[in-house]
Write a structure and sequence with these properties.
The complex is a heterotetramer, with two copies of chain A (224 residues) and two copies of chain C (230 residues).
Chain A lengths: L11 H9 L7 E4 L18 E4 L3 E7 L16 E9 L2 H9 L5 E4 L3 E3 L4 E2 L14 H7 L2 E5 L11 E2 L14 E3 L3 E6 L2 E7 L5 H6 L17
Parallel strand pairs in A: 1-2, 1-5, 5-8, 6-9, 8-10
Antiparallel strand pairs in A: 2-3, 3-4, 6-7, 10-11, 11-12
Chain C lengths: L3 E3 L2 H5 L7 E4 L9 H10 L4 E5 L17 E6 L12 H7 L4 E4 L2 H13 L4 E3 L13 E4 L2 E6 L4 E7 L2 E3 L4 E2 L8 H4 L3 E8 L1 E3 L18 E4 L10
Parallel strand pairs in C: 1-14, 2-3, 2-9, 3-4, 4-5, 9-12, 10-13, 12-14
Antiparallel strand pairs in C: 6-8, 7-8, 10-11
Classes of the chains: A alpha/beta (224), C alpha/beta (230).
Amino acid sequence: MASDRPPTGLSRELIALRAARELEPGSIVNLGIGLPTLVAGFVEPADHILFQAENGILGYSGISESDFDSDLINAGGQPVDLVPGASFFDTADSFTMIRGGHIDAAILGGLQVSARGDLANWYVPARGGGSVGGAMDLAVGARRLIIAMAHVTREGEPRIVDVCEYPLTAECCVDVIVTDLAVIDVTVGGLTLRETAPGISAEEVAAWTGTPLLIPSSVPEMSL
Amino acid sequence: MASDRPPTGLSRELIALRAARELEPGSIVNLGIGLPTLVAGFVEPADHILFQAENGILGYSGISESDFDSDLINAGGQPVDLVPGASFFDTADSFTMIRGGHIDAAILGGLQVSARGDLANWYVPARGGGSVGGAMDLAVGARRLIIAMAHVTREGEPRIVDVCEYPLTAECCVDVIVTDLAVIDVTVGGLTLRETAPGISAEEVAAWTGTPLLIPSSVPEMSL
Amino acid sequence: MTVEICDTPEAAVGDIANGATILVGGFVSAGTPSNLILALKRTGQTGLTAVANNIGLGDLLDELCENRQLARVIATFAIRASGTRSSRFEAQYRAGEAELELVPQGTLIERLRAGGAGLGGVLTRTGLGTMMADGKETIEIDGERWLLERPLRGDAALIRAWRGDRQGNLQYRLAGLNFNPVMATAADVVIAEVEEIVEAGEILPEQIATPGIYVDRLVQCEPVPVRWDG
Amino acid sequence: MTVEICDTPEAAVGDIANGATILVGGFVSAGTPSNLILALKRTGQTGLTAVANNIGLGDLLDELCENRQLARVIATFAIRASGTRSSRFEAQYRAGEAELELVPQGTLIERLRAGGAGLGGVLTRTGLGTMMADGKETIEIDGERWLLERPLRGDAALIRAWRGDRQGNLQYRLAGLNFNPVMATAADVVIAEVEEIVEAGEILPEQIATPGIYVDRLVQCEPVPVRWDG
């Protein structure tokens, strides 16, 4: 399948929007660097979702357009604005929150996700070294882990695979995968297609997925 | 020896005063409940000794005569006054200070001290249960441990003994013992008499001590 | 993250189950949730395990012994060395009617912190070579021996702060912090009494020592004056 | 407890030894001791091990690679997934001229905390089943497996706060806390750069996040503007 071009699915912004819809009102959410950061722009203020950044902020509303303050950034170094009731704390307290199970959901980027929900997202073998940040702690500590990523690599290789080839972030940690082509749940029975992107068929999703997908008899199209 | 009455040595206040003289200028000191608490009243302000209380205060100057504020107490529940530059912190941070070796000296009370500097000060077998507070953490964490106590029990039994009969607070932790009769150093060679209380002879100290004392040829009297 | 504002301390603690483990903040008189403790006396749950720095040192936790509500206490101060004044808990402990697990203070707070922070245990020197190490594993790391202490959590935590906002953020005053912020991380239901409830934003971000996500219930009440006279 | 007020950042870092392990506070641009890092570049020590959240993310730690001062880096962000912009450290790492120990952020801070708090190690689930667990002990406690991570300390810590007083007490602003308060507990010599040095008492007790007893040297300097643009 890697010889064909994959179908054009959601833009990065629409992946972020769809991932935002996974968040329960009132929940505490950590957003990974990159695409997940965009999610902050797509939540309804009325839902009172509170964003935590591992560098020690609880309660930022999104990327700031104001003057840059080097001491007021998210974990990706971007300037943020605060909501009323926001608080600051040190890294030890931040990971008490994360590792201790006090974060309702994390949305992270992914390099690969396996059939049993293993995540690989911190180490590209060709580059070595790696950058892990808080990803491993979030993967074991967040109550619900949502991966937001492109369905296939730039080279057209599936990122959803039988077994991750890239080094793992954590085993059996992913709950749901939101891509440009689909929303897929990790269930005890296996990966289950929940929704397809507009104009994408279940068969196309399956064709660009590197491991068997459970496909219910009726798979709705995302409403965006 | 327990049949005789022990000689009259220092009052509790003078034991505290003598213990206070053990403190280096500029040092960070934790005072145990009871007699050690009195030490705060006997340091020279010019020595800039900073008292830490395990309930989360660094920088109190002594027992307060002002109106009682239930949120401003030392570890013994007594009201305290603060010095400029004082700070508050939670119990976790307080024991980072104590266990982590950031306290220069602790002055604790004692039930028994052994020849090798074991301390017993938290459990009276006849009463059971015990109250340990921060004593065990201070005994392992303070850089220098000073025990301030009566040389013998009310029944006239030595508290400085070959081996503690009471349950230990920590092994090999005591550096110096200040009593109503003497100042005794715990050295690698054994317990060494450093000073006697006014009017008390080295022989009297040895007689009321339950383990051999090394007695230098000349033992000065305390200057108080 | 939604915090429930309760009208009375009884409403805040009423559904704590018989047999529950309750973490009780405070250190002698400082930061002690006395209103919540007295409410628990009135709501009458029994078979409780209380985790607290102290019992019977001027605190009101000892009041729960009047109707034998405490089956077990995990504390650092519990039985005084001198018998001149005895607490109710002491009497019940001696009569074998209540159990006691005495824990060094630095170990107690670190066990609670591990419980709240998702850590598997505490490796400390404190207690090595003492009764506190009886029956516990020690682990050798690079030639040094450490005592392994277990994480500790509560079904509920009763804590006290100075001010709380409508998102549950808490600000403490003076030495009122002590065990409260860590206990707030280590229980399934966290109940805080405060002197004043204010709007979100009135407590500045730098003044918040317990973020509201840890707090489930908030109740405003006048502090109960307590004092220990030794 | 005496804190030394240094006239220049070079005077503050000048006696750090070649081959020392330095803890470097900050998180990308927030709370980063850029003046102290640049001073270290000028004083020129080599063979250093740097422990920091990140290197090459707009921080100036990467500057120390210009004259190959860093032999080893212990960090959470070091090598970017995409190769569009490369740091000096990346080049030296690839050339085998500098070593890297990558550590999960929550484990790095907890290892530093253990180093400062006299704890024997960290028991965490983070990293289990991954490359991070290679060569490390796991310990089973009550049927659950935990990864044992070692405490971490520095010969010196370079940290940044907003204000410091003449007793060394430090106040941070906004998200400038991050690694700084814990690193201040975990090094033999703690050096802090601040924007302003004030008299003792001007920073209120509740505003002090690093008590002065942890701080050995204080230097007042204008912050160096840093920013990461991804």
